Amino acid sequence: MLLTAAAGRTADLRLIRLAGATRKQVVWLVTAESALVVLLGGVVAFVGLLSIRAGLAEQAGVPVDLVAPWSVAGGVVGWWALPVPRGAASALPTWRSLRHRPARSPVGVAG
């Protein structure tokens, strides 16, 4: 999924390079975006679980505990939120897509 996303954003990332960013800065940008998406996704999922629990408790009229295999969920989410696998999954395709130097900007060129 990240490879497809990186391939689809090649033109956008090259534009960032044309604006003056180095290849390393672009890779850090993509890696930070990926980490932010994982973090926000986890927050949204947790809020969804709390909402479902509250709705079920209201419908049943009894308190409902939120029971989940937290060690398994934390391990899976934690693994993908770590910089090494997450960074490799997003940074490597980005790095490869930007391996060529960007073309010079046509701005200021007399035609």
TrEMBL record:
Coiled-coil ranges (or none): none
Subcellular location: Cell membrane
Domain ABC3 transporter permease C-terminal: 4-99
Topology term for the membrane: Multi-pass membrane protein
Annotated TM spans: 26-50
The entry's keywords: Cell membrane, Membrane, Transmembrane, Transmembrane helix
Entry-linked InterPro entries: ABC3_permease_C (IPR003838)
Designated name of the protein: ABC-type antimicrobial peptide transport system permease subunit
Species, as recorded: Micromonospora echinospora
